[in-house]
Amino acid sequence: YYYSPKNAMSSCSSTSCTSANGSNISRNKTVRFATVQVRYYPITIGDNPSVSGGVPLTIEWDCLEDYTESMNVDVFERRTGRFLRRRGDSLIMNSMTRARILKSMGYTKQELADAIYKVALYHKQEQYQQQLWCVE
Prior knowledge:
The protein is α+β, with helices and mostly antiparallel strands. 33% of the residues lie in helices and 18% in strands.
């Protein structure tokens, strides 16, 4: 779009503009996506202390290159479906589910117990700091 006194804009909304001479100029702003890349990541024992109980889990930084796939965004939407998208509480896994996932990936009971201990230690330190703060 080039500026010249002839087509100078005097007012605009998100979908149309009115030129200085009062004529309507349509501005179609659209964004389109052609492909989407789906990446899979290894799951590992996490360190997030916000779990209410049990061992936290997380994904690693590097994706599994052999399991990365590109596809048309329309194919992806049909394949996954909007109805499969989860929100809120449906995203929360209970401690038994997290432990089962990690055990199925080869983690030992001792590794899970160590992670649970670290989370409990964090919560204990946090409670202690809160008590100190109240005393001050």
